[in-house]
Every structure is written in structure tokens, then in C-alpha cells.
Amino acid sequence: MARVTEHRRKRTHGIQRIDLAYAELASSEIARDINRDVILELIRANQPVSRADLSRLSGLQPSTTSAIVGQLLNEKWIVEGAATPRPRGRRPTLVSLNPGMVIAVASIRPNRAILAVVDLNGRFLSRESLTLLPDPKRSVEKLIAGLQRMIESHPDKSFEGIGLSLPGRVDPVSQILLLAPNLLWSPYNIKDAIERRIPLQVEMDNEANACLLSELWFGRMDGVRNAVLVAISEGIGAAILANGQMVRGQSGLAGEFGHISINPVGPLCSCGQRGCWEMYASSSAAIRYYAELQPDVTRPTLTELLNMADKNDASAIQAFSRQATYLAQGLLIVIATLSPEVILLTGGLTASWKRFGPIVEGELADLTLAGRPPHIAITPDPELALLRGAAALVLQRHSGYSRSQPIVAKSKSIRIRRNRTIRSPAAQE
């Protein structure tokens, strides 16, 4: 009996139920795609880098690494540079991401859009702002004209696609904007309208998903497998990373925490419900709080209100403090539901986080159900993060993974040196 028990104790694999509706066998093609993406990621993180170093970093055979590098060269993802001098032996040729491959992107807000051209390293070659109109057809016409100008201004670059980040939920299959209470463009087919005029494939997604994808793709999330990104703007949107995978849910609607009602008799939300979280914790809410305190003063913009708080305006400080308290209350719902290691916040209130962040963190420390609250991190520049996220939407389409497969956070087993890495509290210990 003791011998059987010892045998069972040594076993490391049990029986796991597999849902055959979604299971996919690990074919040689899938293995090649994964290896290709690993090599491409290593090139981006360590460029310029030799084939020998890529083989050493990845653990792949030199012949496999050389074959993948050849494929990436043929696809124009990478280029060869100068050979590295060596005391003896063959001089290795270094490879880097192709600086000539770029993506046209746009971050769309209810009243304006920011357009940019981004290269594979997330660098911006140009940017411009565009005023939008309430009518979706006329606004998309302006957007198309702006994108065409940007593309024509870079005749020496190869455009791989167009990425759009939007303040609403996009069906991941049809790419139709399904829910955008603050934009009011649905169900207009933005993708189809742009692709009829510009011969590039369009990828689009919710701004929170795009921002989280930017953090994953451009490398601040190594070692983190459970995170939530909350985008604070006219409304509140969230993106979810669970067990290393982006969670989109049915029709891409996962993460609409902003439209969870925290007060059934609260203000009427643009979604039709009352007392939604975004009615209390969005940038629009902070402006409303200020207007209630100063009814005879013209409503400021968010930038103006932030500047007023920086100058110690009592009403502005009170408005943001109230927003911060409600932000924390909604985050408690997120924590209780998903138990993330990290919560990333972007936009709005985060521009003055040193002053108002302690309110949020204090509330979370006092009211978290058990254990310590998640690590709170702030994206440094929300506008750039959204634009890079729009670029990442195009990049993920061109990676080895198809749209039907999950976006997987990078494994901790590959040691890649980075700047400004967000790590989970457990990893930090």
C-alpha cells in the first residue's frame, strides 16, 4: 500500500477535462507559429541581435532559428544590418525590426480623434488632431481624409494596416461597433466605410482593450497574468487579462464595469440605466461635481479642471476627491469579481495621481475583502498608449495567432530585459 501511495505522490499530471468544442491539437504548424512569435519578440526586445544569440535566448536549435529569421526577412518584418566584428571566426549579421514597416492609427473620442503613424517599435513618426462631428458618416469621412493625408506624407514607408481605438465595444468577429453610449456611432459600419476608400485592412477595438494590448505588446507586463485596465474618460471602460489571456466575452462585451449600477436612483446614464459607476467616477462626473459646487461658473474642460486643482482651487480639489472615492468603490467590485494582481489606470484623474491616488489606495486598503489589494499602476501617457494599442491591434493580426485564438501574455520563462516593467506583487517578492 505504501508503494502505491509513493507512486501516486510522484505523479505530476492528473486528468483534466478538455472541452472538445474549443480544443485544438498542437500541430507542427501551431508550434511553428509559436516559435515564430517568440523569435520576433526576442528580436524586438534585444535588437540588433544575431541569430546565434536568438538561438541561445529562445532555446531553439540554430537551424530552427535561422529558418524563422529567414521567414521574417521574407515577410519584411525584420531587416539585416551590419556584421559584428569578432576576434576570429565568422562575423554574425545582426537583425532588427524593419523601420520601414508602419501602421496608421487613430484614437477616436466623442468630439475629436488623434491620428498617428507608428512603427514596429511603437515610435511615432507623425501625429495630428482632428475635430469630429455628431454624425458618424461625416465624421468617418473626415477620418478617412486625415488617414489618407498621413499615408501620403510617408511615401517611403510600407503601411501594414489601420488600427482604431474606440470608446465602445466592438464585436471581435464582425468588427461592428455594438455599444458606444458616449459616441453614438453604432451601428454604423466604420471598418467597411474606411476599407472602401483606403486599400488597407482595418482593425478596431475598445479603447481599454487597446490600451491593455499596448501594455502587453510593448512590454510592461512581463510576469503578470491577472490584470484589469480601467480607462477613465467621458465614461469608464475596462479590459481584462485572466490567466494570461485577454477576456473579451460574448460579442466582445466583457469589461463593461462602467455600466454596473451602484445606485438604482442615481443620475440617468447614456446607456439608459440609472446610477452607473461611470456616472460617479468618470471625468464627466468630476466636471459635474465642480459645476454643482460652482453653479454660476462656466463648466471647465477636464484639462482646465486639472490645472485648477494644481493651483489649489478648493472646489476642483473637492470634485476630484469625490471622483476618487467613487472610483475606489467601483474598483472594489472589480477586485471582488476578478481578483487581479495588478490594476492599471489610464486617463483623466491619473494626470494628478500623486494628489488623488492616495484616496483611491486608502479606500482599497480599508475595504478589500481579504488579503492585500492589487498593485495599482498608472500608464504614463494615456493618449500614446491608446495609439500604440491601435497599432498592436494590427500587429496581433499579423502574428502567428489567428483572431479566433486568445492573446496570451508572454511567459516568464523567457528572460527579456525591459525598462519600466510592471510585475505582480508575488513576482516582486
Task: Output the keywords.
429 residues, alpha/beta, Arc Repressor Mutant, subunit A, five-stranded mixed β-sheet, 19% strand, disordered N terminus, disordered C terminus
Can I get a quick summary?
With 429 residues, this protein is of the alpha/beta class. Among the domains are: 29-97, Arc Repressor Mutant, subunit A; 219-383, ATPase, nucleotide binding domain (Nucleotidyltransferase, domain 5, 2-Layer Sandwich).
How would you describe what is shown here?
The protein is an alpha/beta fold and 429 residues long. Among the domains are: 69 residues, Winged helix-like DNA-binding domain superfamily/Winged helix DNA-binding domain (Arc Repressor Mutant, subunit A), CATH 1.10.10.10; 165 residues, 2-Layer Sandwich (Nucleotidyltransferase, domain 5), CATH 3.30.420. It is 40% helix and 19% strand. Helix 2 crosses helix 4, helix 3 packs across helix 4 and helix 11 crosses helix 12.
Assembly classification: single chain
Question: Order of strands across the widest beta sheet?
Answer: 6-5-4-7-10
How does the overall form come out from the CA principal axes? globular
**Would you state the CATH class of the domain at 219-383?**
Alpha Beta
Number-wise, the strands total 15
Provide the gyration radius in Å.
Answer: 24 Å
Let me know the average pLDDT.
Answer: 84
Q: What percentage of residues falls in helices of 4 or more residues?
A: 25-40%
Secondary-structure blueprint:
Blueprint: H1 2-10, H2 28-46, E1 49-50, H3 51-58, H4 62-74, E2 78-83, E3 93-97, E4 101-108, E5 112-119, E6 124-131, H5 136-152, E7 158-166, E8 169-170, E9 177-179, H6 190-197, E10 202-206, H7 207-217, E11 227-232, E12 236-242, E13 245-247, H8 278-281, H9 283-293, H10 302-310, H11 314-338, E14 342-346, H12 353-367, E15 375-378, H13 382-398, H14 425-428
Helix pairs in contact: 2-4, 3-4, 5-6, 7-13, 9-11, 10-11, 11-12
